[in-house]
Design brief:
Blueprint (H helix, E strand, L loop, with lengths): L1 E6 L3 H9 L8 E7 L2 H11 L4 E5 L7 H11 L4 E6 L4 H9 L4 E4 L5 H48 L9 H5 L5 E8 L2 H8 L1 H18 L4 E4 L4 E6 L5 H16 L3 E8 L5 H12 L10 E3 L13 H10 L3 H12 L6 H16 L5 H12 L4 H24 L4 H15 L6 H8 L3 H12 L3 H19 L4 H8 L4 H12 L3 H8 L2
Parallel strand pairs: 1-2, 1-3, 3-4, 4-5, 9-10
Antiparallel strand pairs: 6-8, 6-9, 7-8
Length: about 500
């Protein structure tokens, strides 16, 4: 809504101007009418922004031309309409020279003519807004493009694809010191189980785009399968900077993100800073109740894992396997081993226990699950589940040697009958009466694709069929295909097919 002010020393003229137009209908707000320029100028200074000024030329105390000049100093984009008499044309000419949009004559004032003049002002405002918007967009695009180029140089340095000296000019332009933040997205298994592997990529892209729109300076880009790196120029109060960014991302994306950070003192130390932030973030494996980790020197997790031979000796020496497990779990919690070595040791224990006893590919899948664990608690839980399921497999293989194909056939039949409804790994695993973990391994081993990505493929094909053969609206197609969120459906559909749902319909509708 645009603000309008009327100034004239004749009450009847002010009344006529006010009553000639339905102001609200034209998206205008009449903020006041005044009898001289001094009153109007004081009101402008008090109330702030005025978009359209309708002012008489000849008035006591302060005339309209003086008011116009002073008002344009307050707001150069102000649109001025002069109200004049026949004998005031020289003043009108002066007013037009200084930027008045138009003038109206008191003697011939008609509502239609006045309305057209006001519309002329509105059109000019809208035209200027469009130009400003285009210029702002172009400027913003140029800024983002420049930031993207610098971002690529930083990424090449960090991934050691380019020596620091080869992109020195762009890296040297980075103001120093820089706060380097590493954001690790957690609970990826849950995300991929619920939404498929593409969902994570879409969310990361949204975070990066929003960061560049909302943050004047700084850089943000993915640097691993589940990591985002941020460069924030402000190194004062880093904990507060990180907490604000974390809150913003988690509120906008519903992700859980753990941050670690280090300060980079000069451009030549980018790789060191990234290494320091990564090292700090590894503490999350042991301290999952904490979600922000600063780099602190002297952090060491140097102890090596048990070798296969040592594990075999320990297994045979201990009174029971449970005693051995409890001792190793307690040792892992002492944080004297790197998380990678803890995971390796857990996998090697499974290997010692079940090698040549269960199918190698199944055992390797269980070991792979251990490697993807994010916390020590999760690793221990997965280890115990894997051990229990391996024991069950050994037990069932002697009784039912060929059940996997039957189980998968039953699962596929259920999936194809229900894929447009809510469906998770757990739903299908419960239906065929096996554990969620084993069903996940079984499905991927036989189908060579994750369960949820297979289901999404069925849903996308269903959506393509509906778009090509029906006139259902896009949100209806999404619902009929099994997608609850039309925004996610549209983005995912374009990612998979290369077309938006609307464009796909245009190309393929029969």
């Amino acid at each position: 809504m645009y603000n309008v002010m009327i100034v004239d020393d004749e009450p009847i003229i002010r009344f006529g101007l006010k009553s000639s137009i339905d102001w609200e209908d034209k998206n205008l707000h009449l903020i006041g009418d005044f009898s001289n320029g001094k009153q109007a100028l004081e009101a402008m200074e008090r109330t702030g922004h005025v978009d359209i000024l309708i002012t008489d030329i000849k008035m006591p105390v302060m005339d309209g031309i003086t008011l116009m000049k002073k008002a344009l100093q307050l707001n150069p984009k102000l649109k001025v309409v002069l109200v004049s008499s026949y004998n005031e044309f020289e003043y009108v000419r002066e007013g037009l020279t200084h930027g008045a949009v138009d003038y109206i004559l008191k003697q011939t004032l008609e509502p239609d003519q006045f309305s057209k003049t006001i519309h002329k002002c509105i059109d000019k405002i809208l035209e200027e807004e469009k130009v400003t918007e285009k210029l702002d967009h172009a400027e913003q695009t140029n800024k983002i493009n420049e930031r993207r180029k610098t971002e690529q140089s930083i990424k090449r340095v960090l991934l050691r694809k380019m020596p620091y000296q080869d992109c020195e000019q762009r890296i040297e332009s980075l103001p120093m010191p820089q706060l380097l933040l590493l954001g690790s997205i957690k609970e990826l298994d849950r995300l991929e189980d619920e939404f498929g592997f593409l969902y994570k990529n879409l969310i990361i892209e949204e975070i990066q785009e929003r960061f560049y729109r909302e943050t004047e300076a700084g850089y943000c880009f993915p640097i691993g399968e589940n990591e985002l790196i941020f460069f924030m120029g402000n190194t004062e109060e880093p904990q507060e900077v990180v907490e604000r960014l974390k809150q913003r991302i988690e509120k906008e994306s519903s992700l859980k993100v753990v941050f670690s950070y280090a300060v980079v003192e000069n451009p030549g130390k980018l790789v060191d800073g990234y290494h320091d932030a990564s090292l700090a973030g590894e503490q999350y494996f042991f301290q999952s109740e904490t979600e922000i980790f600063p780099f602190e020197r002297g952090e060491n997790m140097l102890q090596e894992p048990l070798s296969l031979e040592e594990i075999k000796a320990q297994v045979h020496k201990k009174e029971s396997l449970e005693t051995f497990f409890e001792e190793r779990f307690a040792h892992w919690k002492e944080e004297c081993m790197h998380p990678v070595n803890v995971k390796k040791e857990a996998g090697d224990i499974l290997k010692v226990l079940y090698w040549n006893k269960i199918e190698v590919s199944v055992l390797m899948d269980y070991m792979s699950n251990l490697e993807s664990s994010e916390t020590l608690e999760e690793l221990i839980r997965l280890f115990q589940e894997a051990k229990n399921e391996c024991d069950l497999l050994l037990e069932s293989e002697s009784k039912h040697p060929h059940t996997d194909n039957e189980l998968l056939d039953k699962a596929l039949s259920y999936i194809h009958d229900h894929f447009t409804h809510e469906m998770t790994l757990q739903h299908v695993a419960d239906h065929i009466h096996i554990s969620r973990n084993y069903f996940s391994i079984l499905f991927k081993r036989f189908m060579d694709i994750n369960f949820i990505d297979y289901v999404i493929g069925l849903r996308i094909n269903k959506a393509k069929e509906l778009l090509g053969h029906t006139s259902l609206k896009v949100y209806e197609v999404a619902g009929e295909s099994g997608f609850n969120d039309v925004k996610y459906f549209s983005k995912l559909f374009k990612k998979v097919t290369g077309f938006s749902p609307g464009d796909y319909r245009t190309e393929h509708h029969k």
